[in-house]
Amino acid sequence: MTLRPLLVVSVFAALAASWASPGYTQTNGAAPPTAFAASAADARGIAKDAYLYAYPMLYNYKTLYEQAVDPTANSYVGGFGRFRNYSQPYGPENKDIVTPNNDTPYSWAWLDLRREPWVLTVPAIPDKRYYVFQWIDLFTYNFAYVGSRTTGDGAGHYLFAGPNWHGETPKGIDKVFRSETDFIVTLGRTALLGPADVKNLQAIQKGYKLTPLSAFEHSAPPPPAPKLSFPKWDEAKATSIDFIAYLNFLLQFTQPTQPAEADLMQRFATIGIAPGKPFDASALQPDQRAALEAGVADGKAALANAEKQTTSSFDLFGTRQDLGSNYTTRAVAAAMGIYGNTKEEAVYVGTRLNADRQQLLGSQPYVIHFDKQDLPPAQFFWSMTMYDLPARHLVANPIHRYSIGDRTQGLKYGDDGSLDIYVQHASPGPARESNWLPAPEGAYDVIARIYGPQASVFNGNWTFPVPRKQ
């Protein structure tokens, strides 16, 4: 599943009147707006950099608001501290999302760590079934992983703590993960072996639990965290100069400024950016407003240009240490596939072009050939999924097959261990139908997902084979 039309896989008038109220921040009483100290000449460049810095946080907040705050949203998970599990495979009739993933249905949850840490409990996972919980902070850094690759398939209890918790590892906790931010999201994935496996998947998902630390320890909980008034998500406002209001709201839930960002935050402060401070766009001078608007436009243009130059998702996602101070890369990741996995966990590769650099069409039969030594190098498993273009939905077909991979029952390999996948609209015939990935009559895209990829996948030693005409 993706949240927007993406590279691989794939979510912003002034706000001052509503956000200058005391309920806007956690502080007592209404704070005055931050001063605008930059010259108009400097403000444009600062606004551009600040917009790129904020962009992934903005779309992360969009998901937070819709999943954890707004009960009228289709994606609402029930609030903070609750799992919403998905278990039914997607089919061509599902049009709500693009490039849906039937390999590993999702388990979504958001945590509010301001009051106390929370504990993730996972059961023992049987039959070497792949699963993973990817944990993402407000900045969109992948700061923690629990699952087959990192912690194994045994039962466990894992504690997630915010920036203001400084306790020792409690008894019964297998590992502590510390977040830079008070709000975090997990995107869990559990392997599904086909429609007949749904009940087995659901039984495993029922074993995923989230518990406040005090309840886990059977002790008295700490005092409640201050009640928040979450600003309503408005994409038009969040992608205007009022992105500053959203950013200021989010920054109050982050740990004190990273030393490497001290100068950056001082620079941002000159255009009104500071944790928890209201932003009053109506108070700006005309030249100040024009400078901010130009800076936002520059930021959007820089992001669009960076997207055009990005040909691989391999280095878009990771920890703060992985991404460093390249905030444009962090923004590109959010724009092209927010919540993508760190490359060591899973990668997504594929093509919509043939050997002649022409668009693949279902009316033309193709074969995707793997020599034995060139099969997708996956620690866990791999699959290829068919999507029509431009909609990027699953493709209806007479055998109800929407993806194919090393778990596909009846898949036939050559005597030498090689593998041919037949990609076309019409059946390739009874002898080849076991290896048939049905395509629409028109244009399509094939995306391969490799779970637990070997280093050869992202260092260039292994590449996805080019579909060749039959």
UniProtKB/TrEMBL annotation:
Residue ranges annotated for the DUF1254 domain, each copy included: 81-212
Signal peptide (from-to): 1-20
Alphabetical keyword list: Signal
Species of provenance: Paraburkholderia bryophila
Transmembrane regions: none
Pfam family, one: DUF1254
InterPro entries, per the entry: DUF1214 (IPR010621), DUF1214_C_sf (IPR037049), DUF1254 (IPR010679), DUF1254_sf (IPR037050)
The protein's name: DUF1254 domain-containing protein
Matching SUPFAM superfamilies: VPA0735-like
Boundaries of every DUF1214 domain copy: 345-454
